[in-house]
Amino acid sequence: MSEYENVRVGKLILKGEKHRPKKRKHKSKKHEEVTPKIDTDSIKHGNWWKVTKVEEISGPVAIEFGNQTYVKALDNGLFTLGAPHNEGEGPSPEEILTAVSINEKKVAFKSGYNKYLRVEKNDIVTGRSDAIGATEQWEPVFEDGKMALQGYNDCFLSIDPDEDSVVANVKKAGSDQFIRIRSQTVREENPLKDVPNEEQGDIEQIEINYVKKFQKFQDKRLRLCKDGKKELKVAKQEGNLHETLLDRRSKMKADRYCK
């Protein structure tokens, strides 16, 4: 039986058939082109985009009720709902407010007449304040993709249909209190958001970052490879930077994963 066990079992080869070794198929990695996401909602509103978090509420903003109708400042310090805009149009100048961040939860708004919005004792919203106090502070509330704006009196911003004025007199937000705050501030995309922290910086800093991350010495002194940085630049271009960094650390015996 031991003789049979030593026989390697393979594919049956018929007489006259040549044995050809299988060629390994290398799967080519296709680089899919990433199509930039187009904000169609913003385009419909004249490139005024909808904010989704408190920290985005700063600079020029507009408060939208319904579809393309915005809160409008009047010269008597009151506010009303402006006329509907056509698709592709942004808010009018009198419908643009300036948002001022107070803290990570609250903001204040200043009208084009350079006055801050506040809630009066009769729950009417006015723009007559020269400074920010308790009555001029607003808390944006986000939930399930919807937004409402809560005043200092714990009531939410809405439109009084009878008086055609802006008020804050409802304790629980409903469809009439849901708003959208739109901004025209340029959104800064961080080009390094998907890059590991260790790989941010020039090629020399990258090597230092990885040595600090993986070094095994208790004295915390850096052991850097004295070879030139040229091979690192080439490795980065060819896509094998990590392997090259590991080889350099292994030369210095400075990596806890190196033998």
Structure explained in plain terms:
With 259 residues, the protein is of the alpha+beta class. The chain has two domains: 40-183, Trefoil (Acidic Fibroblast Growth Factor, subunit A); 197-251, no CATH class. The protein is 16% helix and 23% strand. It contains five helices and 13 strands. The protein has helices at residues 2-5, 40-44, 203-214, 230-238, 241-251; strands spanning 49-50, 59-65, 69-73, 79-81, 97-101, 107-110, 116-119, 125-129, 139-143, 146-150, 156-160, 165-170, 180-183. Strands 1, 2, 3, 4, 5, 6 and 13 form a seven-stranded antiparallel sheet that branches. Helix 4 packs antiparallel against helix 5 (241-251). It is elongated and about 80 Å long. The chain starts with a helix and ends in an 8-residue tail after the last helix. Residues 28-35 have low confidence and may be disordered.
Q: What is the CA-CA span between the terminal residues?
A: 43 Å
- Name the average pLDDT: 81
CATH-assigned fold name of the largest domain: Trefoil (Acidic Fibroblast Growth Factor, subunit A)
* pLDDT < 50 runs, ≥5 residues: 28-35
Portion of residues in beta strands equals: 15-25%
Individual helix count = 5
Structural class comes to: alpha+beta
Which sheet architecture does the biggest sheet show? 7 strands, antiparallel
User: What's the CATH class of the largest domain, please?
Assistant: Mainly Beta
Helix-strand pattern, N to C?
HHEEEEEEEEEEEEEHHH
Oligomeric nature of the chains: single chain
Quantity of strands, as a count: 13
